[in-house]
Design a protein that fits this description.
- The complex is a heterodimer of chains A (280) and B (450).
- Chain A has 280 residues and is mainly α.
- Chain A has two domains: 126 residues, Four Helix Bundle (Hemerythrin (Met), subunit A), CATH 1.20.120; 145 residues.
- Helices cover 75% and strands 0% of the residues of chain A.
- In chain B, 33% of the residues lie in helices and 38% in strands.
- In chain B, strands 4, 5, 6, 7, 8, 9, 10, 11, 16 and 17 form a ten-stranded antiparallel beta sheet that branches. In chain B, strands 1-19-18-3-2 form a five-stranded antiparallel beta sheet, with helices on one face.
- With 450 residues, chain B is an alpha+beta fold.
- At the A-B interface, helix 6 and helix 7 of A face helix 2, strand 7, strand 10, strand 17 and helix 9 of B.
Chain lengths: 280, 450
């Protein structure tokens, strides 16, 4: 058994979990929702084992490094973070239906990592610039932040869906199973502050690392610049909420806008712009 | 509020609208510099965007936009906004914290968002005891005052957390101050002391030393006040050919005396007297150092040679040379060596740099190693602001945690006599995470019941 097989099982589990959650959304069957949650949790467990195994495999081939250092690995780690942030949210706030809006992201990330031509799943050794103790701290903090922002996006979509149905459908339509608007709004806010704190940590660990490696903590490299743009955007959302009292639909739209900015910071910069940060 | 007496400029800079607008402007203009490549020669922009557009770009400083007057101006406005906004709000927070909860009128308690009621069979004096001990038990420090129809207890927690957001604002200012302190432009133009903060580099051939570096951009010479010698530079490779390590063995010479010998690698810089040296590049030379030894004798030699030139070592009785090379760019990965002692066929073999070859010849056994000569490219930085920046970053994380996850909670208990004994009216509020406080409040209410 090797890690790629386990990643394959993970992808399958996430896809099935997504299907179950959509089933929960459409048919409101409690059983199918529980099955979705169990699949997501089992997928996360296999995923964790696969990450550990890949780390171990890297030692076996004499490279020995954390599995966080190229686009493939970062995408796989991204899916792991999204799933864990979602599961934590579900565990803490008992909102299973959120899975229907979040697990698709995890499933797509896994599928894209597995099937895209752009992805190289080989374990290759680390170039000197990446050989640093800051690597793990930087990647982990950034991706927890990213994942939380993605979950906030899913919640934003959920909010708008629920709102657009209004009172028309009551508890009968597909939006009937969604939580109250006030609850979703509160969840969006909590997810964003959680993500903002981790993402700030991600930028800071990145800056410290850059200073160790290149002698400058900030060089306005496209990746750095887009990360600060992302940071400005979420700072703006938080201020709009805290001090201007923005709630509900506006924040939901901003959370969705955040998705595109996060996506560009994560992927767009690497594929469309040039810079130091070619590893995801 | 006394806003009516304020100067309109001050109220503008104290406003959150301006902060939102500046955040938006900073975020959106930052995009420009990621789409238009930065810090290229003027000709590059002409070629890429045409004459007219290139001229416009130059006028707006777009080719170096993050150091342009208008972008730095935006950052300065942002900093000013933070200062004025915080300076205006902090006194308000202090005033609201000074307001004594015991001055609240009992009838106001019914308007609090979180409320509860407990009826105790005890007489008021016993109920006071109970309220006091239960609150203390739960970690609150209640004070009380006697009002007209009963006794009011008040306790609060986390008042200081209201400053969390200002800790974050302050941390941003500290980071900006650190960036200013470490800016080479500030050191050069304002302090007139380029040695105070600089970024520069030096290309140092193996065996040579330097007592100065040249700054980026301006190419200014900065004296280090000590010397740095490159003893050797080596590249190690993984089996698949990827570079594994770039390492410069260096010696610091202070007053001509070697004081420190160390290795500089990527991610492992060297700091001496405030100047930090980073491994940043290298330059291979088409020159090789050959070390030869005749086994069983004291005969050794070390010589610098070039490719395709025959070299004689008369003491050792041999001639040798490099007759072919395998290269990757300018880096030599393998060398084909030719060696003869003029007895029989010459030895011809491939060898990696830094690998030892043992050559059996009729006249004896020879040990040969060969290495390519390099210059190491070191970046040298002096940044006195970096600890301010790091301190600011740490403070920001602390401030964000306070601002997001801790709240100011206030609790009131008003005890009045009733027919059954005593009636406790509970009220409370929290500035954040009301849901969390509601739970605590409910637990407290249950604890007060018998």
């Amino acid at each position: 058994m090797d890690s790629s097989l386990l990643f394959g099982i993970t992808m399958l589990a996430y896809l099935l979990a997504t299907a179950c959650y959509l089933g929960l959304l459409l048919f409101k069957g409690k059983g199918i929702g529980r099955l979705g949650m169990l699949l997501a949790a089992a997928g996360a467990a296999v995923h964790t084992a696969a990450l550990g195994l890949r780390w171990y495999e890297s030692y076996q081939i004499g490279i020995g490094r954390a599995p966080l250092t190229n686009m493939y690995e970062s995408l796989v780690f991204f899916a792991w973070c999204i799933t864990l942030v979602y599961l934590a949210l579900e565990f803490r706030f008992k909102v299973r239906i959120v899975g229907a809006f979040v697990m698709p992201f995890a499933a797509v990330a896994m599928a894209y990592a597995s099937f895209s031509d752009r992805m190289d799943s080989q374990i290759s050794p680390l170039i000197p610039a990446l050989q640093s103790n800051w690597l793990i701290a930087h990647v982990v903090t950034c991706f927890i932040g990213y994942a939380a922002f993605i979950v906030a996006t899913g919640l934003g979509v959920m909010y708008l869906l629920k709102e657009s149905a209004g009172d028309r459908e009551g508890t009968h339509g597909i939006t009937g199973s969604l939580p109250e608007l006030k609850v979703i709004d509160d969840l969006i806010h909590r997810t964003i502050i959680f993500g903002f704190l981790w993402f700030s940590g991600g930028i800071i660990t990145g800056a410290v690392w850059a200073n160790e490696a290149w002698g400058t903590y900030w060089s306005w490299d496209p990746k750095e610049t887009w990360s600060i743009i992302t940071w400005f955007l979420y700072a703006l959302i938080l201020h709009a909420r805290f001090t201007r009292g923005w709630r509900g639909r506006r924040i939901a739209w901003l959370a969705i806008l955040g998705f595109f900015v996060v996506l560009f910071t994560y992927f767009g910069v690497n594929y469309l712009l040039s810079g130091l940060h070619s590893d995801g | 509020m006394t806003t009516t007496t304020k100067h309109p400029i001050i109220s503008l800079f104290a406003s959150v609208q301006l902060a939102l607008f500046l955040l938006f402007l900073l975020a959106s203009t930052s995009i420009i510099g990621t789409l238009i490549p930065q810090n290229n020669q003027p000709a590059y922009y002409v070629e890429r965007y045409g004459h007219k557009a290139a001229q416009l770009l130059q006028v707006l400083d777009i080719p170096d936009m993050y150091n342009s007057w208008w972008f730095l101006g935006l950052l300065a406005l942002f900093a000013l906004n933070l200062v004025v906004c915080s300076a205006e709000r902090i006194p308000q927070v202090i005033r609201s914290l000074r307001r004594d909860g015991l001055e609240v009128l009992p009838e106001q308690l019914t308007k609090f968002p979180i409320r509860g009621e407990v009826i105790l069979p005890d007489a008021p004096a016993a109920a006071w005891e109970r309220v006091d001990s239960v609150l203390k038990n739960k970690g609150w420090a209640p004070r009380h005052v006697d009002k007209q129809d009963g006794r009011l207890f008040f306790a609060e927690r986390g008042g200081w957390t209201r400053f969390g957001v200002y800790v974050v604002h302050c941390s941003i200012l500290i980071i900006l101050a650190g960036a200013l302190a470490g800016s080479s432009s500030v050191a050069r133009r304002i302090l007139n002391n380029p040695g105070f903060a600089f970024k520069g580099s030096i290309m140092l051939p193996e065996g040579e030393s330097t007592d100065h570096i040249l700054t980026f951009k301006t190419g200014e010479r900065i004296d280090l006040g000590f010397a740095l010698r490159c003893d050797s530079f080596t590249i190690e490779y993984y089996a698949n050919g990827m570079p594994k390590t770039y390492r410069s063995e260096v010696t610091i010479l202070d007053n001509g005396q070697p004081v420190q010998e160390t290795a500089i690698e990527v991610n492992q810089p060297l700091t001496y007297k405030g100047v930090t040296f980073y491994q940043s590049s290298y330059q291979p030379y088409q020159q090789y150092r050959v070390s030869l030894q005749k086994r069983g004798t004291a005969l050794t030699t070390a010589t610098l040679i070039q490719a395709a030139k025959q070299v004689d070592w008369p003491e050792g009785g041999i001639s040798y040379g490099i007759i072919n090379r395998e290269t990757q760019g300018e880096v030599t990965r393998r060398l084909k060596i030719w060696l003869t002692d003029n007895q029989g066929e010459p030895s011809v073999f491939w060898l990696h740099p830094n690998q030892e070859a043992v050559i059996e010849r009729p006249s004896g056994t020879y040990l040969l190693t060969i290495r390519q000569m390099y210059a190491t490219g070191l970046q040298a930085t002096r940044d006195p602001g970096v600890w301010l920046v790091y301190g600011g970053c740490l403070l920001m994380l602390i401030g964000l945690s306070i601002a997001f996850f801790l709240s100011h909670r206030r609790l009131f208990v008003f005890v009045t006599p009733s027919e059954q004994g005593s009636r406790l009216l509970l009220a409370g509020d929290a500035n954040k995470n009301k849901g969390g406080f509601e739970k605590t409040f409910e637990e407290l209410r249950k604890a007060l019941e018998i």
